[in-house]
């Protein structure tokens, strides 16, 4: 993946859009391709655009009185230090990775521990079993770049929305 963001945006709506727009007519798009665009640039564009898409959801939560002070990353994507660092810089908040990243398995163990009586409550089991690992803090320089990119990214869906409906 390229070392720095490019003016390359991928609208990852390959089966319509998810939250926050929930638009079944939206389509995927790549905007900003040039003859000099490399595979590394495309990889970075995909990662950055997925993060920018998630930022749309975080912005909606904040607008509805739910401030986001940190993100906790679980699952397969949580294994990539590079991706978590980019998420932190894009979102402008720390991203924390639990020591156990398989949330479903850990959640099952927490429930089993509580149900079996090993712990007096789900809260006690979670307190005992959930431990945080690495924290990725935002890079202020990169966060400033992502703020500018986010404004452009937000325009992309709106500009393509009517066109995409005409393709349905």
Structural class: mainly alpha
Percent range for β-strand residues: 5-15%
Instruction: Kindly provide the radius of gyration, computed on alpha-carbon positions and rounded to a whole number of angstroms.
Output: 19 Å
* Number of strand segments: 5
As for the CATH topology, it is Nucleotidyltransferase, domain 5
Helix percent band: 40-55%
Q: What's the number of structural domains?
A: 1
Contiguous uncertain segments of 5+ residues: none
Overall average pLDDT: 94
Label the CATH architecture: 2-Layer Sandwich
Largest sheet: 3 strands, mixed
Series of secondary-structure elements, N-terminal to C-terminal: EEHEHEHHEH
Number of H/I helices: 5
CATH class: Alpha Beta
Order of strands in the sheet with the most strands? 3-4-5
Describe this structure in words.
By secondary structure, the protein is mainly α. It contains five helices and five strands. It is 51% helix and 10% strand. The strands form two sheets. A three-stranded mixed sheet has the order 3-4-5. Strands 1-2 form a two-stranded antiparallel sheet. 20% of the residues are buried.
